Structures are given as C-alpha cells and as structure tokens.
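idk why but the lab printer keeps eating my pages so im just putting this in chat instead. protein + adenosine monophosphate:
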Amino acid sequence: MSFDTLGLSADLLRAVGEQGYTDPTPIQSKSIPVVLEGRDVMASAQTGTGKTAAFTLPLLHKLAGEGTGKRVRALILVPTRELASQVQDNLDAYGRYVGLRSAVIFGGVNINPQITKLSRGVDILIATPGRLMDHMQRRTVDLSKLEVLILDEADRMLDMGFLPAIERIVKALPIARQTLLFSATFSQEITALAQRFLRDPVRVETAAPNSAVELIAQKAIQVDQAKKQKLLSWMIGNEDWKQVLVFTRTKHGANKLARQLEADGLTAAAIHGNKSQGARTKALNEFKSHKVRILVATDIAARGLDIDQLPHVVNFEIPNVAEDYIHRIGRTGRAGREGLAVSLVCGAEHGLFSDIRKLVKAPIPTEVIEGYEPTEPLSRTAGKMQARGGGVRQGGRSGGGQSQGRSSGGQGRSGQGSRQGGGRSDAPRSASSGRSGGSRSGGGSRSGNRSGDSSGNSYSSSNGNRSGNSNSNGNSNGNSNGNSNGNSRSNEGQRSSSSGSSRSFGRKVA
Ligand code: AMP
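predcted complex ->
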C-alpha cells in the first residue's frame, strides 16, 4: 500500500515523501483512514512502529484549511517531556506545508514563554498532564473549542499516576470531539479509560498486544549484580558496540553507572528526571551525534526517545514492571531496523525476569559469560515482592505526595510512579509504595529445586560450556539464539543447590 491511497492531502504527501517514507507502516495504514472518517480510535501501537505519524498526519489533514484561531483545536497528551518534543518534531516535519501553529508545554521549564506562546494562538497543543493542569488553573489555555483529543502512550500515563489529571483535563473538554487513544499495552485500566472517554471507538491492532517488536533479538545474561558493570564495559568494548542505550532503575544508579563506564575509558552520559531539561537535551544530542557512546537512562527519561538506527539496548537492571521491558527494548529495532536487547539478570531479578518472559511470549535465550559466572542464588519471588532498591527506596523519598490508589506496597506500578516521578514537577508522586517491600525482598531467595523456568528454556546454561568460546571471541550475539537451550542442567537447579543461604542476596537488595 502506498501513502497516496490513504486520503491525505498533497501537502502532507509531499512532506511525508521528504521524510523518505515510501510506504505507510501497518499502524498508519489502519489508523489514518479511520481517523479521517472522524471515528474515535483505540490503537495498540508499540513504540517504534510509526504511531506518531499515524495520528499526526490525519490530524493535520483535518485541521488544515479551516484557518487558525485563538483557541486550541487539538490536544495531544503525552507522558514525558521527551515524547512531547518528539511529537512536536514530527508535527513540524509533516506539517511544514500546512501552516498550522503548534506548541509544546511540559514541566521543569519556565512557564512564562509557554503562556506567551499560548496567548498568541495555537491550533495543536502537545502537553504533559501536570503542566497542562497548571495552565488550566492559571486560565492561560482555552480548551473550550477543542475538536480532537489524542492520548499518546496512555499506558505510560496511567503508570505515572496521571489518571486524576487526565480525568480533570477531559472534564474541561467539549463532549463533542474526536478522541484517539494509543497505547503499547492494553490492560484493564486502559480499556476502562477508553470506555469512559471514547465513543464507539474503532479498535486498531497491529501486533498482538504485549508482544515485543519482532525485529529485536533478545537475550539475557545471568550475572551477579556486583559484576554487571564490568561485564557491560567488557561487552561494549569487546563487541565494539558503537551506540548503546542502557537502562537503570534509579537516577542515582544511572549517574553511578555512567561514571563507572567513563572510568573504564568509555564515553557515557546519564539522562533522568533530576537533570535539567538542558542537560537532558545535551546528553541526548551528544549520544545521537556519536560524541557519547553510551546513554544511561531511567525508564521515564528514555520514554519517547527516537534515535535512528539504535542497535543496542541493555537492561542493566530489570524493570519492576514487566511492561517497561517492552518499552525499553522498543528503543531499538525502530522503523524496521534490527536491534539487539540484552538483559543482565542477577539472582534477585530472576522472578522479575520470569514475569517478563511470560509477557513477551517469545523465547529469550540466556547465556552465562565465562569469567562472569553467577554465584547469587536465584529468587523465584515475583516482581511485585521483589522491588530491589528502586521503587522502594525512592518511594520513601517521594512521600508526601498524593497517593494514586494504585500504589500497593512497593509493587510494580506504584514503585514506578514514585521512582521516576521524584523531582519532576509534572509527575505526581505516589507516596504509599512505602518501604514494605524493600527490607524483605531477599526472602524469596530459596528458589527451590525445580529445574526449568516457566518458559522452559530460561536459565539453561549454554550447553554446559558456559558459552566460553562464543564470548571469548567477542561473537556471542551470533550464537546466543542457538545454543541456550542445550542439554545441560538448568542454572536454576545449579543455583538452588548452592543457595544454602540468602545472605548474599539479602545484602544486595537492602
Ligand atoms: P514512532 O513509532 O512514531 O516513534 O516512529 C518511529 C520511527 O519510524 C520514527 O523515526 C519515524 O520517523 C519513523 N517512521 C514513521 N513512519 C514511517 C514510515 N512510513 N516509513 C519509515 N519510517 C517511518
């Protein structure tokens, strides 16, 4: 199918052509005609699938030609500043011959230039919920004539605790409007949200919900927490990775890791919510222009990053919320390119990674690297109990904010809201994640004697030879898919036999 058949104007087709796009992606060919018809849409679209153009192109088409006014005609709500900027870039690129005015507003920067811009008149407003609420309270934005509402990455907005803000924003909008909801995953909460805010939506699905982007090769390496950094430096150097996005759970962890990588002679920068917008933009630009080889990021900071040809994503720590894994690895393999996502899984993260395997529904081969053989016992404790560090510690720090009702004792989503939200002016804090999970997270370290993980192939050591040769020549990627399912005992079995004590695990998670 070509773009010409979708019903878009010549101005838009010209701009799309200049972007070098030849054919619409599946989400674009399915969504664009329905949006042009005026229907509400509920689309499951993973990051990197071209979803931004799937809503910006028909939006520009609809709004063009009706002249510009003082009031906002379309609102695009996004979870993070980076995604807001990303959407703005897309709008600028596709709308260059259309002549509509757009503005982007998010927290963490001076509000006054935003007020000035809004007062001059804006057709399309891209906003994070927190800052938009600020403007609504100050009456510096007029949404009374809104025609189109777009909720982008709705799952992430809910994860970040933005539901109350979204509810208040939507209440202030005209009922007669078109609403589009895009989400990488479709939880019950998202479906409930859609039922409340959308009218008879057309459901657009391009890939099985929760399935990882197909082009991404995934593998896990089992390694002790304390050895992860050295292993990472070794892999990057030995396998000559040129551009690597590394995820940590905490802002502190991101800073620390960037410093350690630098000490190993690699160029690295950290990007997270405590950094000023200027520092984040600078780090991102340096990474994009290859001045810096490694970008270490927390989940929220990395959300929305669109870096062409990003070949490697490393999960230095496994996310507390399994869905985050999909968002993280979606950073690579974008727009049809291949990528490799490597997860470094320590014993305490075994339960979390099992959750991810179940969600992803694809085999993720596991390796053990010679010289980095794990010694920690494997925890079978599920992610919700585990909350190693991140959610719990930071949850405490962010106390005093509002509780979002979703925060159940150190568990996944609440931990995330508080973890990542701390210090961001536009992210509500979730206070009640509390400390309940942290002090005892080592409890599950007796992983028992069951061999074999729920997914069957996980943690089976590479043929008993611990993948020695494949890695010593720096060629582990090529082999990783083939040999992980070998004949050998599962590591889980091995670990459990050596797991007499949970002390080492307990020490690590404290
Ligand atoms: P998104 O999922 O919107 O973040 O888009 C991911 C990447 O795909 C961005 O770099 C877009 O510029 C690119 N892209 C969007 N649509 C197309 C297309 N039809 N053909 C090729 N690349 C595209």
